[in-house]
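Trying the structure run again after the queue cleared.
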Amino acid sequence: MNTGLAMLAGMARIPKLLDSHPDRHGFCPNLSSVNLALLSGFCLWLGGLALLAVPTTMPGAEPDPKRTLDLARLSFQRNLLEVSLAPLKKHLSELILLEKSRAETRDYTGAIEARDLRKRLETELERLDKELLLLQTREQSIKASLLPDRIRLPIEAAKLSGVRRDGGALTGWAKPGATAEWKLGNLPPGGYEVVLRYRCTPLEGGALAVQEARFSLMADVETTLKGPQEKNLGTLKITDGTGPLKIRARTVLKDNLMQLLAVELVPASK
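Done. Tokens:
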């Protein structure tokens, strides 16, 4: 709460700064954008108590009241900054144009005033950008700490293309391009080990790819001689924790790639 007030106090310096540097006609251009930033920030601050009261949990994680509250507080502060930065950056662009236009009309006193104001606003924006980065880093760190040791992607939740469900397994991967897709549940970006549990007879096998929004992981599917086998495919970097994760057949030796029984993600930080 005190941090939110301090941030609002910092942003409150901006209109004072602008008001103290009107142009020669006594008018300071386009202050509405700055006022909008402050009004939005104040509304967010008033809504902060409601936000802090809402528990924020990670998929499959055990509730941790203190860390959950810390996460909600950081999320509130980050939202406060994000909604305030855009109008301030827009006003900075307007000041750059104002400085240029005054110089072109040889209003050098006015150009110097606009330049000084621009520099002060740039300094304030740089400070707010650094604060935002720090909040984002802390927020991601807490999210990672709240994750369970293993995150299971339910077989029954998979969206299938060229694959079928049979007795609790995904099978019938008959052609390259056959795909099972899951929607991730708001995972923090980072590295995750991909662990599959599957059966593969001597007449099955091939190669697969595990794909997220930007990155992918390749692996071979080999015969499991002693029944179901668990295999760690390696670490996949996940950039969009709300996006899709796909397992796609790349090659199929004969009629089926495998009988997939379970898919789990292990946070690399664990």
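Residues 1-8, 10-18, 23-58 have pLDDT under 50 and may be disordered. Worth checking whether this holds up in the mutant runs.
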